[in-house]
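Handover notes (outgoing to incoming on-call)

Open items:
1. Transposase: sequence verified, structure written out, both below. Nothing else pending on this one.
2. Nothing else urgent.
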Amino acid sequence: MLPPEVQQEGLAAFKRIGEEISEVIERRPESLVVVRLVRPKFVRIVEDLADPSPVKIAEPPERPIERGLAGPGMLADTIVRRWQDHTPLHRQESIYARDGLELSRSTICGWHEQLADLVEPLVEAMLRDALQAPYLCTDATGVLVRAEEQCQRAHFWVLVAPERHVLYRFSHKHDSAAVDRFLAGYKGYLVADAHSVYDHLYDTGNVVEVACWAHARRYFFKALSSDPERAERGLALIKGLFRVERSIKTAPRKKREETRREKSRPIVDAFFAWCDEQAADVLDETPIARAIRYAQNQRTALTRFLVDGRLPLDNNVSERNLRREVLGRKNWLFLGSDEGARTNTLFVSLLASCQLHGIEPWAYLRDLFCVLPSWPKSRVLELAPASWKQTRQHEDAQQRLAANVFRAITLADHAPPV
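Transposase structure tokens:
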């Protein structure tokens, strides 16, 4: 940009003495690219009667959906929009139409169902790996499923293997059978709420219950309006536990156990001594009575974090990850079918695990669709978000990604790196 005087008199009349630089963010419509694949056909000039295939043509490049219209980047975009940004298919339909692409919601839905079959072995491998963790965190939330007369209530479950995987499952009932399908064969600590659907797991001794202090705290919050003095005392003691936890958040296991013995155990002992003292004085079925009774009933499980430094004080990690489905539910309202629920949980598991490991989801899914179709099944766990950063450094993965023509097109458009 030149001043008016310089434009009128010319650069020869002035001496440049510096410059001022500023930047402005702008936006342009998204870029949809049609990749035309040209495969020349050849025949020998001198006919070879022994050649069973006289016409020579290169094999078509591998696609996530065989002979599908969409490439890896386009498919990844529809998935990120649907389950990361919570954009229902009818809204995606209108968004792509504004960019000049007439794409029906039924087509997108069909793509996702086919891709679900592709990624299911990977997510199942992630679940098997998660069940080897020393402790797991779990929770559930309701969801509606379309039925012939009226929507039926069903449930999403989340299972978090800290620092490894975030996994989701779907069931029609919130019962022990659903828990068994999700946690079959698991042995270790289970951080969960006090719902009875988990009780049978603890009876065997293979699974050890760990209760959540955030749940206990919630009961005392509900009692603030009716019995503020007692509720505030209970909350103050629980607050002390969380203050200690913040101070050792990144500490190694032994340090956490030592600090909990020195600082947290006296608070826990004081809290339950106070609960026992107040229990006889509060009126039955009042909010404060329910708060104290909940804590007393969960005493053993609530104190379990004191014996193992790996265990968390609360189950908030499960609730945070369930918000992903809750936010989605506010947009798409209900599931269309059981198959739709399966597709949902598979891709939400991958997206939530990407967030856990700080991986950009679109680039991950694009690259996953580039390599997964021909990736050795025995090594499928290497493609999980937990291992992705290491896997991408391997020569095998780099060669596969570099050879993918569709990925090369998206990189030419300066796609964001993982």
